[in-house]
Structure formats: structure tokens, C-alpha cells
Protein 1
Amino acid sequence: MKNYLNDETTIWSWVATTDHKRIGLMFFVLTILALMVGGTFALLLRLEHLTPRYTIMSAFAYNQTFTLHGVIMVWFFLIPSIPSVFGNFFVPIMLGAQDVAFPRINLFTVYLYLAGALVVFIGMVVGGTDTGWTFYPPYSAQTYTALMPVLVGVFILGFSTILTGLNLIVTIHTLRAKGMGWMQMPLFCWAMYGVSVIQVLATPVLGMVLLLLTIDHGLDWGLFDPARGGDVVLFQHLFWFYSHPAVYIMILPAMGVISEVIPTFAHKNPLSYRAIAYSTFGIAFIGFLTWGHHMFVSGMSTFDAGIFGILSMFVAVFSAIKVFTWTGTLYKGAVSLKTPLVYVFGFLFLFVFGGMTGVAQATTSLDVHWHDTYFIVAHFHFIMVGASLTAWLAAVHYWWPKMFGRMYPEKWAIAAAILVLLGFVGTFFPQFLLGNGGMPRRYYHYAEKFQPLHVMSTAGSWVLALGLLLALVYLLWSLFYGERAPRNPWGSRSFEWSAPTPPPKHNFEATPVFPPSAYDYSRPVEF
Amino acid sequence: MSERPVSVWLFPGIGAVVGALLILSFVLSYVEMGRWTTWIHLGIATVQSALVVWFSMELFESRFSVRMLAIITPLFVLLLVALTAVDPATRAPEEVLVPNPTIEPEPNIHPIPGIAYPSGAGGHGQP
Amino acid sequence: MHAPPLQHHFPDIEQQRHAAKLGTWIFLSSELLFFNALFAIYAFYRVKYPEMFQVGVSHNMKWLGTINTAILILGSVCIASAVNFLRLARRGPAIFLTLVTCLCGIGYITIKSIEYGFHFDEGIYPGGAGHFFVEHPEHGLKAFFTTYFLLTGLHMIHVAIAVAILGWMAWWVHRDRIGPWGAYRLGLVALYWHFVDTIWLFLWPMFYLMGART
């Protein structure tokens, strides 16, 4: 049967496609490649930390490795992993549209990603940079490493992010099916809308910051050079004004996935649709007000630090609203424990755990001790990996049947999920203890007493890597040998399942007429 | 949202008002206004921009979503500018720093975290 | 005169045009946030070096800055009127006024370049380079002028882009004999000019008026 995959099979039909599904698929492949590269760097870092001194790389190489690990994972994997893949693929279908608002701009975002990735790759090849993914001056203005390609590559990628956000916002505003109001669209669309607002408003500031660093590094304008009246704390203000909302770019889409998976596998409508929809904006908004909590010990005024500490606490309120709503949705639902839901359970536990450590760190008096230790590293990995990556894996498994028309092998998937979740905890829980015990981050040498925990963490990383590798293998296998998927294998009421599996080029055979709610499990499934 | 043409005198009229505010701001720059200087000049600029945005950028005939955007975005400008400027405004005054004696580590020994520098070097022996 | 093609995924032309307008505004918002970082830099350094910023502001040529502001405002009036004339199906005035706007932009760039020339003559270069900073070694002055060059330089690049796009639009209206249906497209491009004008309405007091000595 003709679908978006086999509709046209020439290379040109892919290279020049304006089909949002093909574009989503291309981003899928690219982000997985980025995950593998960034993950390899992570494994190398963990190998290095098996012993307190030299293990496999020099201190300089170590600095470059953690820098590139951060750059690639944040910008080339996490940020596009859900919006550019599943957002592109499913938002039009969920809205009953044939495509996104600006299909050609959508194609352009793929090439921007590629161009940015290529430039960063060139930077990697000529030696990479050793400033950390945060590029703080004065060191970044002075380092002799290949900082420029990395800055320029990320700058280019920033435009891909902005345009994706722009496209999704306009799509949601203008292409909803007739009769579909804001409060009828699937919750994933709300998450995509929220994340797109952040992408559009925050990423330009990053672009400017990178441009300024490029000018400083290349033309020696000394904008942040204290000898010329500059202030390095100002750089941090500008950098974190983007990078804190960036972490919400990384978590809001994950939350959107959770909001879809839970009702489906609990066969129950969400406890409160509005709570989830509005709290998305609560998080998006408050996320902009909190950047100074990365700078408590930077030399910023204590007054400003106090303001940021208080504001940072508020974001937890909206996250809590979501967690309670999700849990309330699961309660007394007819739960079927499939792989996506296993990942969701992992998400709920790890997100709450990691999130609470976040609230603790928002307290200046505690962060003074934890800042720049492994405690912080553990916290953000709990959220970025334990929550975001886990939700991404849930999304991959949840939507795999719709995207490819094949089922993945359930038993292998559950096994991989267990490996991933256990491996994750094994990798990062010891890091909380390390950080609390005083182990600084980004340190090549460490005191002997930290070695046992480091070894545990490294062992955990191997289990995590094994789980991910296993997932890759059976997913690829399923593309050729997996059981053919029905239109709606999960019995979901959400609108994307009404499209054929896999969807045809224009998504629907006829103009879709959706039921009034995407979550009404009291009625029999219509598609 | 079919745009109907407006009077040909609207935009020159708006331009005249913005121009008058230009002259006002220019003249006021010669007047000693103390603490209010910044706010008055920026206030005039805000009024000028509001006129340009509302009329010349056709906000008066745009939909709610566009209007929301035009209101929200400047608020973000305000947010970054305000919270960034609060930092130097509320720092303790910079005292004249007494230069720290430079710590000379022993050659060929890597400083080890958790252990003070070898004695014989100046400074505070911080880990 | 031909009507614009309706793209297959839009239900009607109204929705398509609204999408284009919303998309343009979102793009302009991202541009404003792009400048936002620079406004923050200015605010930060101004709070840190209040006296030196006032010295710097006084040093700039107020008359030139004000004339430039007036030119941009004139351009705004012209392009807005051009869009209106196109809605009235009066292509001649529309094209003429669009070209006048381009001239305003070119005039702005010329005056700005002359101003930069004066700065360079005095030994004021970005990055605290130049003999001016040897004679006046205060840190705040270096910060002021680097910020000045950054902000006005980036703004000038945007004016140049606006001139180029508007010039192309004037050609498009002429070549394709565009009628009222095309006015909205000229309007979208005009938004870019107005945006650039609005940014300058703030840069002008920031660098020429606030704290200038009487």
C-alpha cells in the first residue's frame, strides 16, 4: 500500500522533500547519530574516571571530551530529539492537517542542522575545544583550541531550532481541523507549542552570545575582558538566559510524550486536561525567570542571587501539578504494562527524584557547596537522561508502529528498558554521593577516596550503553522482520492513530472528522 | 483579516507625531533632569515605538495572536535587561584589592585536590 | 494580475495569509530577542560605569544621530504609505515610495559610516583599540564604545538587509504588476523596516541623548 515511505523512492524525493513526516524521519536518523557520538564521548569519560590519574587520555583530551559531549548531547540530540522528530511528524496529523504551515522552511531546518553539525564536526577533527559546553570567558577568549568552528556550528543549529519553533507555532495556530479548538487538541501539541515559544524567544539570545564570543575570540574586542572594562559575569547572565530555558526545551516535549502515553496505557482520560495544558505555559514562563541560579558563586550580587533563588523554586509548582495529574490519571486506570509505559514509570520516578534535587540546589546556601561538584552533574543527568531520554525512548516505542508500520518485539524491549533504567541509576546515583562528598566536576585528577563510586558509575554506564544498543538492534530488526502493525495497536483515542499506518503522503485518505476529545475512553475506539 | 486601505494621511500623521516626540527628546537632552533622564528618554522612545508598532506595523488590524506577541516580546527584553542590570547595581562596592602573593607550586608536582599546597609557598594554602 | 497560489495544506487563502503574517511577526520577535542580549550588555555596563557612559554619550555627535533617526522615521512613513497605496491599487506611488524608503536606508548607512569615520579619526576603535583610549584609559569608556560599535554595527547590517529586500520588492511589484492582493506581502517586508526603525528609536537615546552634557 502506498504510504509516505514508499510513495516516491528517488533520492531527490527525499533530499527535496517537503513532507513533514520524511523531514521528521531525517531528523530521527540525525539525532540518533548525534546520540551515538555524544554517548561514545560519555563512555570515554567514564573510562577515564576508572582511575584517579591517567587512564586512557591526557588532561587536555579530557577537557575536549567533556566539552564535545556536552555540545553534541545538548544541541544536536536533546533539543531536536522530540520537537524536530515527533513534533514534525505528528503535530500536523494530530491537528488533522496535511502538513506544517511552512513545509519548505521545514526542509531548510534539516539542512541547517546538517550544516551546523558539519561545522562542529570540522571543529572536532581539528582538535575540538576545551572550554566546556558553557564557553565561559576569560578562558574562552584566550584558548588556542578550535573554538570558532564549534561556536559557528552551534550558531547555525540555533536557526534550525528557531525555525522549527516558528513552524510549529504557526501550524498550531492556523491548521487545526475545523471544530478543533485549543482545548480539544492532543496534549502533545500543547507541549510542542510551549517548547516552540521558548525556542523562538530564547535561542536568539544564545545566537547573540555565540556571535559575541566569536567576535571576542576572533577580533579581540575584549567585550568580557576585565582589563578593558568587561565583566565575565555578564557573559554568564547572557549565556544562562538562554541555557536555562534550554533545559525546559529539553523537558517540555518529554512531558508532552508522557501526557500521551499515560492516558493510552491507563485507558483513562487525563485527570485534568487544563492542568497539563496551563502548567506547560507555567513552566515555559517561569523557566525564563530563573537563570541566575547557575551563577550563585560567580560573583553576582547576593541580592540578585536571592531573587533568582526564590524564582527558581516556583517552577517546581508546575512540574508538581503535572506529576500529580499524571499519577491521578494512572490511578484506577486499566493499566497495560507495555514498553512505553515502563519508560514512563522510569520517567516519573527519576524526574521527581532529579527535580527535587533541583529545588534543593535552588537554595543559595546549599548550592554554594554543591556548585561545580558532581551533585550538579547528577542532578542534570537525572533530568536530561533519566527524564528526557527516557521519555524519548517512550516516544520511540509508542509511535514506532505508526511511523513504520511494524511492531517492535515487546519482550526484548522490556529487557532493554530494564537495562537502560537500571544502568542509568547505576551511572548517576553514585554521582550524587560523589558530589556531596566533594568531588568537583570537570576535574581530571581526583582524590583516591572517590574511586569506588567512580568505578560504580562507570559500570553503570556500560549497562546503560548495553540497553541502548540492544534497543537499536531490535528496532532495526523490527523494520524488516517485525510484526506488521495495525492502525491503532494501543487502542488510543488520540487523533494521530486515526491516520493509516504508516500514513500516506497527505496524512489522511479523506478530510478527517475527529471526535470531540482525544482522551474519551468511555466510548469505544473509533479508529 | 482582509486589509482595507486607510486614509493616505494616516501614516504621515503618525510620522509627524513621532517626529514631534523626536524633537521633544532632542530638546530635553539639553535639560538637566538628574535621575529622570534615562526614564524620560526611554519613555519617549517607548511611546514612539508604540505608535510605529500599532499603526505602521498594522497591529490595529491584526489578530489577537499577533497582538499578544507584540506585547509579550518586549516584556522579555525588559526581563533580561532588568535582572541583568540589578547585578552590578546591587554589588558591594569594589574595594581596592591587595594583590595576593603568587603561589608558586613546586616544580613537577601536580596540585592535588584536598591537600594544601606544599608549605614554603606564600598564600593561603587553599585546597 | 494573478492571484497567489493556495498551498494544498491551507483550507483557504485567508488562513494562509494569516499564517504568513504570524510567521513574520514570530521571526521579528526572535530578531528582537537577538538584540535583547545587546540591550542587556548596555544596561549592565551603564550601571557599572555611569559616569563614563555619560562621557561617551556626550562624545557622540548628537546632530548626526538625530538626523539619522529622522531619516528612519521618514522611511517608516514612506513604506507604510507604499503598502497603503498598493491596497488602493496605485502601483506607481507604491513603487516610488518603496524606493524612497530604500534611499532613506542608504542615506542612514552613509551618515553612519561617516560617523564611524570620525570615530576612527579620533582613534576610537572597537575593542578599546586606538590612541583615544591611551589618552583616556578609563575602563568604562572602552566598554561604552565597544558596546556602541556592536549595537550600531549590527543595526546597520539590518538596515542594509532591509534596503536590499525592499529594493527587491519594488522590482517585484513593478515586474509582476502586483495589485492589492500583493499589498500584504509588501506589508510583511515593511514590518522588517519598521522593526529596524523601532530598534533605532531606542539606540538613539541610549547612545546620543541619555546623559549628554548640556
Protein 2
Amino acid sequence: MMFELLGIPPQVLLGQLLLGLINGSFYAVLSLGLAVIFGLLNIINFAHGALYMMGAFVAWMLLNYLGIGYWWALILAPLITGAFGILLERTMLSRLYKLDHLYGLLLTFGLALIIQGLFRNYYGISGLPYQIPDALSGGNNLGFMYLPNYRAWVVIASATVCFGAWFMIEKTRLGAYLRAATENPTLVGAFGINVPLLVMLTYGFGVALAGFAGVLAAPIYSVNPNMGADLIIVVFAVVVIGGMGSILGAILTGYMLGLVEGLTRVFYPEGSAVVIFVIMAIVLLIKPEGLFGRAA
Amino acid sequence: MIRTLAVATTLGALTATTALAQGIDVKLGVLNDRSGVYADLSGEGSVVAARMAVEDFDAEGKGMNVEIISADHQNKPDIGSNIARQWYDQDGVNAILDVPTSSVALAVAGITAEKNGVLINSGAGSTDLTRGQCQPTTIHWTYDTAALANGTGAEMTNAGGKKWFFLTADYAFGHSLEENTASVVEANGGEVVGTVNVPFPAQDFSSFLLQAQGSGADVIGLANAGGDTVNAIKQASEFGITQAGQKLAALLFFVTDVHALGAETAQGLSLTEAFYWDQNDQTREWSARFMDAHGAQPTMVQAGVYSGTMAYLAAVEALGSAEDGAAVAAKMKEADIEDPLFGTVKVRGDGRATHNMYLFQVKSPDESTGEWDLYKEVATISGEDAFLPMLDECDFTK
């Protein structure tokens, strides 16, 4: 068989593909949030990684200060980070909509550094422990690999959230308002729709998605202030490859690049940290608007 | 930081012109990671430790004027080199302390020799500091990858872990740690069945762990550090690897990492350290004061900064000057040092400080009586057994 010629038995390959899909789940939820925010607000949200980290920390705080467990955190932490996002939008971002993208990028990048710095100051860099909830501990032997229940849950939860978000934006009346408001805010406002409110809620929703990914990540990755900084650059590459602002593109590219990265880890592990950026460079050269983007 | 450096420069210029003949001016620079992955195990805690050393040494009472400055090298050799050069050339720094991250430490060691300062390294692990790139002005105080390998590597191989698979952080330190451990494993009758080079830093280790699982190894050696090791251990437990009987060897793991992981996940893990806060009355007394000042228990790196600074100040006092770095380093090598934290320390001709190393096991949540009650001592490894023998060409006392 071809696989065995490369020295990798097919069952190992299958396992690695599944792991790639799991990592892709995080990319998908995070890049979806970025794409929603960029598509509807024209803001390049560099604070996304810091807000993802905040989601994980809020889950930890809920557990350690208030005794609230994982399942409630899964709902509460995104709401809390989303509310924090709305605060940022109202007080700062809303002043930048008329300016060049660059201003939003610089502001959110600065915010990200401040948020990370604050958490680092109070909680240090080593990270904090967060256990997998009892209901999801353990796992199943699939024959080709041992799949922890929690990882299976990550795939299901992220796929559900991604589908829900896509459906809401592309198929419902609310989503239609949103899309219309970005095309022509003045006209939509004239129909009696509160456009600033819509924009504010959209940013809050994008941030809540980041917070949700943070809670999903807390039991399996080290909860530390830099967890988002390491991830955000990759996620930006995912969004660029998918096409800035394309909702479906962000989701599909997230999963796809998770798979590509997973395969790279088998065949050339040293290159797994750069493979996504190589793909980004190629895509930008051949199809600058991204795989799913519409040509400007 | 630029402003601090500017102020420090001005101060340095002023003191240089007004120095009294009998007063000894000493300026120490703590150069480490203050915001990245090694910030908790070195960082501000190392500065606190250096300050405690100056106080405990009673420098003021002995007519010494000791100033401590610090900077963040961000784990980047170019940034570390620039700061080191500026410190020696413009700020009148006599010695640089700590310097975790081997690539930065090796760069700073070269500059230190060129400028005739002293590098008292506590944070970095590469054995090259006292071997391939040894310098007369380098003192390597706390640990190195060979000592870690001789502790954890030998112990686990002798306990039946004959087949090893390495997850190696893909940079100088990771490769050095893997190489040292592999040779210890092989010397004890074990074999290395595979290695995977993991880009640094990494968050998800599941793919690599699965490869290690498939290799049929008895022991998975984690040749990485900090957050990488924490993530790898967390995920190994999640993927049922430890439950299925494969053992994990954390080849470089600090008490702050165990604290981050929690006793629940880390229990049973074997690791090697040069210092643990709860070893004897002296370590407990010192650590309690450190805890008051810093809010966490000290790591062996921070303890090493304290002890290294004490030894350095003693040598400077004996010589009456800190100007000639090579002479101070030579003085430190003259006699055995009785240290409150590391016991008897012998600084060899190559700059390697040898002292006991300890093999610890992480307590289970039932055994642990508090947040920081994490280790039980399993074995003591003497300095001669722990560290590699000295290379002839690196013996600068000859």
C-alpha cells in the first residue's frame, strides 16, 4: 500500500487525521469569530487571542472563586467575555469605524497586550490547573486510536456552534439585517433598524465565540496568559486563506488546515509550525482574495 | 526599560568618577525571561533572590556598594546579546546573573569573556556552557542537562524502562537534553526506539504522543520545558497513555510547573532538581522569606541565583575589587563553598558548580498537605555522579 511505502501504517494515519480535525475545531470556532467581526464591522480584531485566553480564565475563576463547574462555565464564560467585548466596542472600537482598518488593528493589538499583561501580572505565566469534567473523562478505543471523550465532545460542540452561527447569519432574518447593515448602514437605519445596536451585538457575539473556544480549551491546554498569543497568528492565517470576511470560508478552512497540520506532524514534524503560513503565502500569490473570498 | 537603562547609565557614570578607594562598587545585572514561558521559574523571582543575597551577605556593612539591575531578554539571543553588551560597555555591570534559555546563555557567555565580566548562570541547561563553549568567566551554578539525565534517565532505565521515545523541543536545549539522556539510557542498558522533534513552543502534543504510543516504548522522555511539558503531561493523561502503562519522564520540570499542573494530574511523576524548598530547616527558612517577598515558593533556578550571588560577593570581597571578571571567577573556584541552600558546592576549573542533585517524586493529592507540598525525595545523587567529568581543555585553573 502507498501509506506503508511511506512508513506510516493506515491506522496511524487515520488517528492523525482525527486529531487534525480536533485541532481544526479550535481554528474553526476562532476564525469564525474573527470572520464575523471583520465581515460585519470591518475591524481586524487582534484582541481575539487575548479574549480566547480570557474565556479560559473566566472558566477557571468561576470554578475556583464561585464553585461553578464546567457546564455552566460553557454558557457563562462566553457571556462574560462577550459583555467585556461589548464594553470595548462601546468605549473604544465604535470610534474607529470610519477610519482605515489599520487603526482598528493597532487598537486591538494594544488591547491584547494589555489584557495579557494584566493576567500575567496576577496569575503568572506557568498556568493554572483545570480538570476535565467527570462526565467527559475517559475515552474509547476506536481500534486505530484511543479517543478521549473530551476530544470527541470538542468536535461536536464546535461543529454545532459553527453550523448555528453560519445558519443564523446566512439564513435568518436577523442575519439578513446584519448583512444589509454592513452593505448600507444609512439605508438600513432609515428602515427603523438600530444599526449601532446590531453592530455592538455582533462584536459581542464574535468575542463570545472566542470565549467559548477558551472554555473548550481549558481542560486540555495549559490555562496561561500566553495561550491566545501563540494561537492568534495561526488563526489569522486561517482567515486569510479562507478569505477575509467569508463565514463559511473561515469554518471550512479551519477544519481543513487542522487536517493539513495533523498530516505534517506525521511526515515532517519540524515543519508543522510553519505549514499553515506556507499555504497562506501560496494562496495569497495565486488567489489573493482567499479560497472562499469574493474578488474585491 | 529604556528609561531605566538611561537612569542606570547616568548613575553608573556618576559613581564611576566618585568611587572611594576603600569602597567596592559592584553592579549586578539579572538577565532573564520576564514575560515569556520561563518568567515564573526565573523572572522577577530571580531578582528578588539576588536582592536577598545582597542583604544576607551584609554587603553594606562590609563597605560594598552593590547595585542590581534587570532586563528581559525575551528568550532571544540577539536581544540578550545587545543588553549584555550595553551593560558591560556603558553601564559598568560587573556580572550577569541567571540567563535561562541556552541559546541566549551561550551568546552572553561569549560576550562576558570578551568584556572580562562574570556570567553566573542558573537558568540555562546546556552542558556546552562548560564544555564545547567553555569560558574562564562562566560559572554554571544550578543544573545542566547531563545532571538531569543522570537523575531521571538513569533511575527510570534501572527501574525497567528500557525502551525510550523522545519528544524533543526543536532547539538547542531540547536536543542537548535528549542527547544527554539518550547516552545515559544506553549506558544503563536501555535503547532509544524513536524521536520526534516538536516545534517550540507547542500547544497540542496529541499527534506526537500518539506516535510515541505507537512506538511501543516503555518511557516517553519529554525533552522540553515549561508550558510545553505541562501541556504534554496533561494530554498524555487525557489520552490514557500513562494509564496504559507507558511512563512519562519529565526531564526538566520545576516546582512551579508541578504547581500549575496540580497534584491530581502530576502525581507519581519522577523528576530531578537541585533544590526543593522543603528539604531542611535552612531551605525552609529561606523559602519562607522568599515567599513573603515574591508570593510563590522558589524554583531551583531562583535559589541558584541567590547562592551564586552569595559566592560571587564573597570572592569580590576577598579580592577587594570586581573589575577583573576572570580573577573573580578564579577566586570562586579556589575552595569548597558551604551554601545554605545547596550544601557543599565545589566550583570546578571549567566553571561547573557541582553539588548534590535530588530525584523527587510528585506526591498524590492524598499525601500532599498543602498547595506547595508537592515532592517527596526518592534519591540523592552526588555531584560527582550527577555532572559530566571535566574536559581537560576547559580546566581554566591550570
